[in-house]
Amino acid sequence: MQWGELRRQARTIESELDVKLTALSKVGSSFIGGSVNAHHSQTSQSSINSDYGDLCKDIEDLLQQLTQVNDKMSDVVSSIDQGNISQQHTAKRHREILFDYMQDFRRMRANYTSARNREELLTSTHRIQNAGTSDKPPDATRLLLEEQQSLLHTDKMLLDRLAAASAIRSALRSQHHILKTTTGNLLNLRARFPIVNKVLSHISWRKKRDTVIIGSVIGCCFLFLLIYLFH
């Protein structure tokens, strides 16, 4: 696939991701902001959760497509005949954009999951207290909330570690392609050196041959001149 076509595909997917991430942010903000709470109907909650799930699936598909396009761009850049400095910078920029999208998506999803879990816990506790069937002491709810916050904090730390690992992987992949391109150029130059040496040797041989021919012609002319003078 040509470089221009890959760039067009990358820009198209990035535009779609911008739209999807904006929509996901609005859904998450409405939930976190309290538009969905215990007083809303179950139908409203199910509708928002369904919309959120559909958006997440679409974004995951787009991220996978953009990753594949970036891999193809990296393959083009790493090729000996087609890679150049401008394409290397362009491919690196698209990888950085992909990484930013992944970071934003993980952050939005983590925030939404945290808010939804907290809302479900509070709603469940409120229903139990209203029904008068709670056998747990008042501190039980507080302990559950603290445990949930601890789990969410751990989950956030894991996401940060995964993001750092993804950044390292992207950097290593970029260095790999740069080294591969450099190695290819060196091999190409090494392959050309024997041809250059052969051409130089051929030129040197022709120069020596011309010198011998000219010397022979001059010698013959001088010999004919002597014969003519002393005949």
TrEMBL record:
A cellular component term, taken from the record's GO annotations: SNARE complex
What is its subcellular localisation?
Answer: Golgi apparatus membrane
How would you describe this protein's topology in the membrane? Answer: Single-pass type IV membrane protein
**Pfam families xref list:** V-SNARE_C
Alphabetical list of InterPro entries matching this protein: Golgi_SNAP_su1
> Care to name a GO molecular-function term for this sequence?
SNAP receptor activity
Per its record, how is this protein called by name?
Answer: Golgi SNAP receptor complex member 1
Note the subunit structure. Answer: Component of several multiprotein Golgi SNARE complexes.
Instruction: Spell out where the chain crosses the membrane.
Output: 211-230
What family is this? Belongs to the GOSR1 family.
Biological processes, Gene Ontology terms: endoplasmic reticulum to Golgi vesicle-mediated transport; inter-Golgi cisterna vesicle-mediated transport; protein transport; vesicle fusion
Query: According to its UniProt entry, what is the function of this protein?
Result: Involved in transport from the ER to the Golgi apparatus as well as in intra-Golgi transport. It belongs to a super-family of proteins called t-SNAREs or soluble NSF (N-ethylmaleimide-sensitive factor) attachment protein receptor.
Name the keywords, alphabetized: ER-Golgi transport, Golgi apparatus, Membrane, Protein transport, Transmembrane, Transmembrane helix, Transport
Keyword Methyltransferase set for record:
no
Q: Per the record's keyword annotation, is Calcium included, yes or no?
A: no
